[in-house]
Amino acid sequence: MEAWTDLYKELAEVIKTKTPEIEWVDLWHEQVSYLTDELPFPSPAVFISFNTMSCDDKGQLIQDCETQIDFYLFFETFSDTYVGSYNQDSAINFLRILTKLHTAFHGLSGNNFNTMRRVDMRREESGDAGNLYRISFASVIEDASAQVEYDQQSVNEVDLSKGPITRPDTTDGEPLYDIRM
Hints:
single chain, alpha+beta, five-stranded mixed sheet, 3 helices, 5 strands
C-alpha cells in the first residue's frame, strides 16, 4: 500500500464521481498564484493537500495519522455576485459546488481513510485570479507504508518421516532439562 498515493487517487475519484462539474483535479502546489507559469487548467478545479496533525504508533511501523485534508476550489468567472445582477446565478455557482464537496465528503469513509468530518471552510487569497475557497476535513489515515512486507514463498524440500515416534529415554536418571534457579 502506498498510503498517500492511494488516498489521493481515491479522493480524486470521489470528486469526479460526486461533482462531475469539476473539470480539473490535482495536488495543491499553489497553482493559482502562478497562473502564467503553471500548466493551464480549466475551471472549476479542485486541488487536494494533506497535512498530518499528529501520528500515533500502532506497532510494526504502522501509524494512525490524524490528517487534515484540504480541498481548494478554484472557480474563474467574470459574472457578478451582487444581488440583482443578471448573471448572479452563474457567479455563485461555486457556492453550490462547495456544498456538493461538503456533502460528498462529510461523514464519508473509504478504503484509505476513516470517517471524514469538516473542520473549516474559508476564502483564500487568489491574487485576483478568481474565487478560491478551501474546505478542510479531518480524518484518521492508517499509514502502513513503512511496514516490512514479506512475500509468501513455497518450500519445496521438506522431509517428513512417517515412522514411529521415539520418545527420549527417561530411565537413565538424567533429567531431560536443567533448570537453574
